[in-house]
Amino acid sequence: MISIVIPVFNEEKNISELLDKIQNNLSSNDQIIVVDDCSTDNTVDIVKTFPCELIKHENNIGKGQALINGISKAKGDIIFFIDGDGQDDPSEISKLVEKLNEGYDFVIGSRFIPDKNQEKKKRYDQNALSPVNFVGNKTLTFLINELFDLNIYDTQSGFKCFRSDKLRSLKLESKKYEIETEIVIKSKKQNLRIAEVPVYRYERKHGTSSLFDIPFGRFKFMIRVIKVILYGFVKWR
Fold first, then answer.
1. Mean per-residue pLDDT, 27-47
2. Are 98 and 211 in contact (CB under 8 A)?
3. Which of 64, 149, 161, 213 might form a disulfide with 179, Cβ 3.0–4.6 angstroms?
4. Are the beta carbons of 86 and 18 closer than 8 angstroms?
5. Continuous segment of H or E residues that includes residue 201
6. Which of the residue ranges 56-60, 124-128, 133-137, 186-190 would you say has the lowest mean pLDDT?
7. Which long-range CB contacts under 8 A does 137-145 form with residues at least 24 apart?
């Protein structure tokens, strides 16, 4: 059984199409959990029209807490994360699950990993990843790989799956976007078997990332992630 956790915030124009696609790529026995981080639009009303479980935050806390709360309700032996903006393709869920079934504990859907023939293909739309985001992603990934002796191409991907017992063993704490970094570092510290598979990322059809709505949002995100990296290097064992 798969439990898929979808964190959302003000995604009324994207969530319906995403949930339709997810339903078409899961079995009727699988579990869909939507965690709404205090949306101020019609996201919640739309989610209620679908056969999924809804968790509502009374305050806007952050993506990290949304994922943590989703994990607490997950019943599957596989837990999958996918963002609510519709930029990842649910038809690729099976690729990650197949890799997990090869014996891995944690599988990342990667935009940057080379294909099997080591060909480096661009697997994201031009407007799906801004130059600033690309540089930030590569910088953080370099730091994580160097400090923790890893070889991951896309540490900031939100499209990933886990064996549920292994994910719960990480005891995640981060409240906001830096949870992606915490997951990677703690997985390494606990010797989880990590794999990446190539996936595509598409341009948002509607809206913008909530980080754009925060003054200096990208800069604040970088600072929070760097703090997690340094804390993890010193404290997490």
1. 96
2. no
3. 64
4. yes
5. none
6. 124-128
7. 139/222, 140/181, 140/222, 140/225, 140/226, 140/229, 143/226, 143/229, 144/181, 144/184, 144/185, 144/229
* 33 contacts: CB under 8 Å, gap ≥ 6: 3, 4, 5, 6, 52, 53, 54, 55, 70, 73, 74
What is the DSSP code (8-state) at residue 101?
T
Q: Provide the CA 49 distance to its chain's centre, in angstroms.
A: 24
Residue percentage of the chain with pLDDT more than 70: 89
Residue with tokens 């595509």: 200
What does pTM read for this prediction?
0.91
Give me the count of residues in the chain.
237
Among 161, 150, 159, 154, CA closest to 101 = 161
Q: Convert the pLDDT of each residue in 101-141 to its tens digit.
A: 999 999 999 999 987 765 556 666 666 667 777 888 889 99
Task: Examine the pLDDT at 38 and tell me if it is beyond 70.
Answer: yes
**Across the chain, what does the average pLDDT equal?**
90
DSSP 67: H
Q: What is the dihedral of CA 84, 201, 190, 218, to 10 degrees?
A: -70
Nearest-angstrom CA–CA distance, 156 and 99:
19
Strand order in the sheet with 194-198: 53-56, 31-36, 2-8, 78-81, 160-163, 106-110, 194-198
